Amino acid sequence: MGLNRAYAFAAAALAEGAELLYFSPGGVDFEKGMINGYQYDGGEWNRTRSHFPDVIYNTNSFSQDKQIKAAERLHEIIPFTSYSIGSKETVYRNLMKYEQYADYLVPSEKVLSPAHFFALLEKHAEVVCKPSWGHQGMDIYHIKKENDTFRIRFGGEESRYDAAQTADFIQNKLDQDDYIVQPYVNCRTKTGVPYDLRLHVQKGREGKWVNPIIYPRISSNGSIVCNIGQGGYTSDLTGFLKREFADRHYDIRKYVELFSLQLAAHMDEIQHELYGEELNELGIDIGLDETQKIFVYEINWRPGHPPFTNINLSVIKHTIQYAMYLAGRAESEVL
């Protein structure tokens, strides 16, 4: 979390009557039960030494063993707000297992080898290939066979390979990471531009799911990737739906709002049953096909914050409120 975002969290905490301590695992003194961190006061961040907090908003993942061990020790004694739902492959497998939302999922399959990839491409004709643990639209490829060549699009760039070159390309990717393949869903605007909808859902003050924001993400530069971090852009949801669906815009909006809350609750039930954990926030990326049927591309447990200042503050407010809810619940369980 950068300092600008931390400032927004500090302001929201103050408005909600809570205190915020900004720290990293390196600042934790387990022997004395204290943490060296920062608190925002009087217009600036001041170093401070504090007792352990009631709840931790674990916004970052850690790669160093020392950081991971410190986070694990903190988790044993202090409630965390966020829990991983696993890779794209894991999420797909869990949702298929519980069946309720199976019909909404874009089929996903882990690529085992170049030969396996070619079999999947033969099955679906046009596919999207992406890292199982990817984020922010990174390293996503649109691949289609055209006669004896394979067209591979990445961002606004396009390459054409023969079978041997394509096999080398896939093997090179598999040597770097796990990849999944999905059939391409033709979700486009009336002008033929790819788009998706980000459904941002959270738990708020009472620990119940709320839907602070839905926004369209629209591709640019000829890319199929709509992620804003990869050159996509967004617009006002109401205006976008009016342009695309005319007099059906209100029904479409209510349809996806209800869908997001119901799917989030279902994901929460799965998380609790399989791992004994609770979810607090999800980013659900969906497309609508030609019949306006919803297809779920992927679900993220750390969806990032939307690119709108007022909505961003609303998302942060819900985060603070949920942390306070967890603190109050933990206190009542002790009593």
Order of helices and strands: HEEEHHEHEEEEHEEEEHHEEH
CATH class (first level) name of the largest domain: Alpha Beta
Largest sheet: 6 strands, antiparallel
Count of folded domains:
3
Please give the CATH architecture of the largest domain. Answer: 2-Layer Sandwich
**CATH topology name of the largest domain:** D-amino Acid Aminotransferase, Chain A, domain 1
* Alpha carbon gap, first and last residue: 33 Å
Low-confidence spans: none
Coarse structural class: alpha+beta
In what range is the share of β-strand residues?
25-35%
Q: Superfamily at the CATH H level of the largest domain?
A: ATP-grasp fold, B domain
Task: For the structure shown, list the relevant keywords.
335 residues, six-stranded antiparallel beta sheet, five-stranded antiparallel beta sheet, D-amino Acid Aminotransferase, Chain A, domain 1, Dna Ligase, domain 1, single chain
